[in-house]
Amino acid sequence: MTDRPSWARLIVLAALVATPLTLFPATVAAHAELETATPADGATVEGTPPEISATFSEALDPERSTLSLRNAAGERLAVGFIDPEDPARMIIDPVPELAPGVYEARWTAKGSDDHLERDTWSFTVTPAPSPSPTPAPTPASSASGEPTPSATAERTPTPALSPSASPGPTDPAASTDGDVILPIVAALAIVLAVGAVLLSRRNRPTTGA
Which residue segment(s) compose the domain that 57 sits in? Predict the structure, then answer.
């Protein structure tokens, strides 16, 4: 009779001891843990990344959860916010222009309990690749392979005037001047001829009777 109460007490004590142990993993699981970081920890990106974000295992308390970006000197460059479409995600967008170097993202996360989680991750920015030069456009041809009218016009030589080409019309004013001058010259020649004949006769000596 005395053994039964002793066993009962042992069972009760064991249950009391086991209860906190069973609840402890649930308490640990309630902490907000970082699941995904963008860019990833230790990653190297070319040029400024389009966004910096951190996704956690549960929804975050916006009053006590923070995300910031710092350079190698520890200067804060930007601050993030809770994504309106995902309460378990903090994001920095837009991202300021980043020079080549190492950068650190610092975060503080508070989930459904009062425990705060803090940590950091880093990534490296390298110079963005230079854009390749754009080739000069070439003259386009038609789909049938025939040259376009502009190309044909450029290749068609301009015909030159041959030496035997007929001259253009003469100036009417020049023809009229010639018709007027010729009769005047002819009249003057006749007058001079008649004058010479008369002068020769006048100077001829007369014979006496």
Answer: 32-126
